[in-house]
Amino acid sequence: MVRPGIQKHLDIASLLQCPLCHEHLHAITCSLRCARGHDFAISSKGFLNLIPQQGPLKGYDESFFTSRQRIMEAEVYRILNEALIQTLENLDLPDDPIIIDAGCGEGSYLKAISSRFCGTCIGIDIVKDAIRCAARGGGAERWLVADLANMPIRNHSVDVVLNVFTPANYTEFQRILKHDGMLVKVIPGPDHMHELRDLACDRLAHSAMQDHGVAEHLSRHMELTTRARVTQTSYVSPELARDLVRMSPVTFGMDPDELELDKLTNITVDAEVLCARPHGQETR
To answer: N or C end of the chain: which has fewer CB within 10 A?
Structure first.
């Protein structure tokens, strides 16, 4: 009998293509294989690795994603999870939507969405430790180690692409989205993690949140339809303060012991949720 963690990945073979030759993948016992013989075994840990020769990425190790998971479990990002769910509820999705979280990390956003939507939810990240962390505990979600610049997803097969606080590849997003599909992208607002930036300001090249024109860049590739800002300030315990330092890009690589963490008692999440559709898409 095939384990559930393996079977659920075999079940999505019709959505996947080989990252090496782009031929369609097909289910073969406990792996997925293309017509040219490229074979990708499904891990007994409940994920599919489509970059099997990749080594670890510096800084993005298991402790990084475990800290991030604890922050999410403490509901520091609760308002963002609620905003993502509300955004998807406002879309005209089919009864069984295909939802991809591109750059899913440890998978918290996708798990929150999966708990509210009947559909196929697939998390993709290039970091194996992130996907390993996401796959813990089972669940209906599928988890793929893959490159966002070469996504192993067939053309025009996806209803929604999520892209939360992580770099985007708009060419690939438009390739995999259905013609009436939508991108939901989250970018940091000006006050995002400002308490952490204030604490580490002497060590930062820029203590203020930098706007790199992400929304404008998105608008050059896709049609921006809506944008909404959400904020939440939460109490931070001493233990969570250390997790914040370990998991935040603001303090990436810093030693928590070198910061005055007793001053970090609150943290603010400030985010913009952007919705965009492929150019030329008719309004539904």
So the answer is: N
Structure tokens at 98: 């295909």
Backbone torsions φ then ψ of 261, nearest 5 degrees = -70, -20
Structure tokens at 86: 């509300």
φ, ψ at 25 (rounded to 5°): -95, 150
- Rounded to an integer, what distance in angstroms lies between the CA atom of residue 157 and that of residue 13? 12
| Dihedral class, residue 14 (left if φ above 0, else alpha if ψ from -120 to 50, else beta) | alpha
pTM of the model: 0.93
Rounded distance between C-alpha atoms, residue 200 and residue 208, angstroms: 11
Beta-strand relationship, 120-125 and 142-145:
parallel
Nearest CA among 140, 106, 117 for reference residue 5: 140
Instruction: Quickly count: other Cβ atoms within 10 Å of residue 215's Cβ.
Output: 15
Name the nearest CA neighbour of 84 among 180, 178, 165.
165
Dist. CA 184–CA 224, nearest whole Å:
10
Instruction: Give the residue from 113, 104, 160 showing the smallest Cα distance to 132.
Output: 104
Structure tokens at 278: 């492929």
Query: Residues 6 or more apart from 146 whose CB is under 8 A from it?
Result: 19, 50, 51, 124, 125, 126, 152
> Parallel, antiparallel, or unpaired: how do β-strands 98-102 and 120-125 relate?
parallel
- What's the gap between Cα 104 and its chain centre? 2
The low-confidence residues of the chain, meaning pLDDT below 50, are: 205, 207, 283-284
Q: In this structure, what are the phi and psi dihedrals at residue 161, rounded to the nearest 5 degrees?
A: -110, 125
Measured in degrees and rounded to the nearest 5, phi and psi for residue 195 equal -65, -40
Beta bridge partners of 253: none
Task: Find tokens 């479990």 and name the residue.
Answer: 73
Q: Kindly compute the dihedral angle of the four CA atoms of residues 241, 246, 251, 253, in this order, to the nearest 10 degrees.
A: 150
